[in-house]
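agent: user wants the structure for Glycerol-3-phosphate dehydrogenase [NAD(P)+] from Candidatus Olsenella excrementavium. delegating to structure tool.
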Amino acid sequence: MAEAVQRARVGVLGSGAWGLALARLFSLEGHDVVVWSESEQTVERLRKTHVIPLPNDPELPAEVALTTSVEEACAEKDVVVFVTSSRFVRGMAAQAAPYVRPDTVLVCATKGLEEGTLDTMTEVIAGEVAKARPDVTPVTVALSGPSHAEEVAFDMPTAIVAASHDERAALLVQELFSGDVLRVYTSEDVHGVELCGAIKNVIALACGIARGLGFGDNSSAALITRGLAEIRRLGTALGCDQETFFGLACTGDLVVTAGSLHSRNLRCGKLIGSGVPVDEAIAQIGAVVEGLNALPAVLELSAHCNVEMPICEMVGMVVSGRIAPEEATSLLMNRELKPEGPAAYEA
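agent: tool returned. relaying tokens verbatim.
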């Protein structure tokens, strides 16, 4: 693993709003940054305008290099940050594997679970790199927490978590990326941090559906709180650290994703709740809705672990068209009555 350096060489794989917001921040912190995009058109537009595609046009520093070459973005880098849609992380890792150094720290800023394998994103990255490079023992870090690109791109103070099984890697990421805008905490509970980051998007969809039905703050508070109980039940069954559920990666990210109109998951859910078909809702959002990507894996994990997750189950039934949002509401409200205390988290 690379030793701590004041000026790092950073590759960012992904040119969406979050990837560019991070690239901007890393550059302003004094690091050498290269952003990869698969689109030559995107690269040319960014080179010409130096504007991140977000409201109020945040500026992308001219010092940020842009490329369509995976090799250029990954070779001889201290840190490579994956910021693609969860569905493309495996393919991206396979493309990056031939070029990363054995000591390159592989950071994943994408939240999700892979359908079928049920792997977290860092597991996907590590698996692909190890498969392609027997000489490399991949060092991965999950970067997660309440962090809207719309705010980070305008230097609004934000706290996140760097989780890794390699303490030195987590500390390196913490040191490199902490400053006036980002405060980075470390964690050893990689699986818990990533699990929470994926499931909270599904709960945000539920909150959006409730908003689309015309419900208010009471309903949102109930869904967030009981959604947290569902995350905690599944995480506990999978051996995650209890403290993670009450930290930035879970409670913090859940609150911001389920309560802010910056949230694609909330906005998509609101459209679905108001009667817009799922495909049309996704088209109106115009960007990846990770809660929909994570939903099949969340439900499969729930069934595999025999963990009750009624909110997630109702979201699955609504988005698949099996029941209407109004019926899902009635089913949730008329479930068997039970206590809220510790026994509820074990149910």
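agent: one observation worth passing along. The first helix runs from residue 17 to 28.
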